[in-house]
Each structure stands twice: as structure tokens, then as C-alpha cells.
Amino acid sequence: MTNHLQAVTTLNNGAKMPWLGLGVFKVEEGSELVEAVKTAIIEGYRSIDTAAIYGNEAGVGQGIKEGIKAAGIRREDLFVTSKVWNDHLDYEGTLQAFETSLEKLGLDYLDLYLIHWPGNSKYKQVWSALETLYKKDRIRSIGVSNFQIHHLEELIKDAIIKPVINQVERHPKLTQKELLAFCQQHDIQLEAWSPLMQGQILDHPVLLEIAAKYNKSTAQVILRWDLQQQIVVIPKSTKAHRIKANADLFDFELTKEDTEQIDNLNENHRVGPDPDTFDF
Question: Per the confidence metrics, is the pTM higher than 0.90?
């Protein structure tokens, strides 16, 4: 059970990934980013998630470097994720994109590398490149992001190595129950990006009522809801007090009724693009 900040899930290849991490989507390069990553590591976070398209891998790398030093830990204690963007959706382009990301991050290897969006059928070429990098031990685990069930079915058909992760938009207004069931059935860990719906749901009366019951914030309730359904979460924040609060999830447990109430908020509503219609 996820009962402390550094609790891990074992992925289908045996790798261990923390249930809770820091996301840095839309955080620009600069001291605020470096400080956020460093603060998260000092506070006990061991998972950091970025992507090539975020344009902030260098700052994330600097934050990791400073955080490791300040926390007195090793690189091996961290789980670092990045993603290949859709302008590199072929085999050679993916290999080059990976080297660029690694160089910007200042790392020797990545713990997890994801295909950021399915885009079109070329994602099979990208997957083949990820498999090559995995076999060469440049990446410890490989996975996908924003894949629907039909994308996963298509990928698994030809894949030599099965994805360990599917990172998707998930929050109380978009519960993705069928996708979650499919991933669990195929031993693919589901991971939620934008778990707090970019703040748009934090004042929902149902969530406020549940939060009051436990003397917690609505953000903490939502993140706990994810963890109790065995979903990895990567809330984004640059503020030290929020980074700390987002990790304060392990001294309460939602009831079955609470969980059902939150599940019932689903409207299949996305704040991000639809993977089936996203035009790159």
C-alpha cells in the first residue's frame, strides 16, 4: 500500500517507480524551476517528470544536480522521466531526440522514456527505437503517454517489449475507467497527468465536503483518490508549501463511499487535447 512518500510500484519489467512524483509541465527554464525540483528532492520526492516539448530539461537537470547534493542522495535514488515529442516520430529521429534530452538533463541514463502522444501510426517506429535504447541499457523502462485502448492494442501487437506505463490525463472529471481496467488487465501501470485538473476542480462542493471531513485540502483528497486506485500521480507545483502539501497524503484513507462520490463526478471532460483528434 502507498503509505509513505517514497513508496514504489513494481512495473512489469521489475523496475521500481515512486507512486508520487513532481511534474513540471508549463514551468519555464529559470531559477523557479531549479528551486522547485531541488525543493521536491529535499522534501523526499524521488520521481521527477519532464518532456522535450516542455523546453525545461536543462533546468530540471540543474535542479536534480542541486537536489541530490542538498539531500545527500545518489542519482540512483531518483526516478527521472522524459518524453519524445511528435516532431521526432521515426526511428532515427527518436534516437537523436533521446540523446538531446539526456544531454540537456546532464544524465547518463533515463529511468523512463515515453512516447508523448500517439500521433499517427509512426509511433511503432518510435517504439522500436525505444526498445533499442532499452536493450542498450540507456533507459531503464519504456512506456507511452496519452494512448487510448486501441493505440495500446495496436502497439502491443508488434512490440517486443510491452510498455510499463501509460501516462494520461486523469482527474475527477475524466476518470477513464475503461482505460484503467485495460491497463490493469495488461499489467501496464496507469499514471495521471493533470491530476488536479489544472486547479479547475479544487472548489467543487463534493470535494470540499470530503476534504473538510479529513481536515485536508481538496488537492490532497484528489491525489489520495488516485493513489488508492493504484494510479501513479505527478502533481505540478513550483511553490515550496504546495510541493510539501502535495506529499502529505499518507495519514488518512478515503472510504469506499468517498471514492464513489469522486468517481461520480466524471463527465469525460478533458482540459488537454483528445488523443484521437490532436492535430500536430
Answer: yes
